[in-house]
Design goal:
Blueprint lengths: L1 H43 L3 H32 L3 H33 L6 H27 L2 H31 L4 H33 L14
Helix pairs in contact: 1-2, 1-3, 1-4, 2-3, 3-6, 4-5, 4-6, 5-6
Length: 232
């Protein structure tokens, strides 16, 4: 009887540890989402103080992925998980890596916000804002899909990739004209092209997260077909 109770206790502790890994991944996702939102605010409102806070906060995201990785390694070593439990750990690794990349892109956008010389007019601000809003929505939905184990929401994120590519193409063409029309501002225009690319890549990482959610819940690997025709 005591052995059975001890086994049950050990199993409960193990389940709790798996849940804690997933919660840390979700919290890390929220941190990255906030970083993207603030980096866009810094760029669109020319706010260097907000940009600086985003850059400083990047270290916290980096520390969080190290913590998650350590937890996952310990669980594998101690519990030798199989089936769904193993997928929880594997997707914890994979999703946290995508989140870390999202944080890196937010850092890059914030750094650009500090360097950009006021080249954004209302038209191009609107395009960057639209692209950024789409990226933030994709990250938010992907993390909610992960938290809720909702493959239908994950599929919604994957389907948003086509919308993201369309906005990216329009933004790319608009910003490209700055390089030729305002040759004295080539450096600023090039930085803004990179911002568009960073936001598009954030959307790609959100799609990756959504695909890992599907794998976590179904053990099936899915791949979202890209529609982009422009290379930035």
């Amino acid at each position: 009887m005591e052995i059975k109770m001890e086994t049950q206790k050990t199993r409960q502790e193990y389940i709790q540890q798996l849940a804690e890994v997933q919660d840390k991944v979700y919290q890390m996702g929220l941190m990255a989402e906030v970083a993207v939102r603030r980096s866009l605010k810094a760029l669109l409102e020319n706010d260097s103080e907000v940009a600086e806070r985003v850059m400083e906060a990047d270290d916290a995201i980096d520390r969080k992925i190290e913590e998650i990785e350590d937890d996952c390694i310990l669980l594998i070593a101690k519990q030798q998980p199989i089936a769904h439990d193993l997928r929880v750990i594997a997707t914890g690794f994979k999703i946290s890596t995508d989140i870390e990349r999202i944080g890196d892109h937010a850092f890059d956008i914030a750094r650009t916000a500090k360097e950009e010389g006021g080249l954004l007019d209302d038209e191009r601000k609107a395009l960057i804002r639209e692209l950024g809003d789409c990226a933030v929505e994709m990250v938010s939905k992907a993390m909610e899909a992960y938290r809720a184990a909702d493959i239908h929401m994950a599929d919604d994120v994957r389907h948003m990739d086509r919308k993201m590519d369309g906005i990216f193409n329009r933004t790319f063409y608009s910003l490209s004209h700055l390089v030729t029309d305002e040759s004295k501002r080539v450096e600023d225009a090039t930085r803004l092209l990179f911002v568009a690319r960073f936001l598009e890549r954030i959307g790609d990482h959100a799609v990756n997260i959504a695909e890992w959610v599907v794998y976590l819940e179904t053990a099936e690997r899915v791949h979202t077909k890209k529609t982009r025709h422009i290379q930035a």
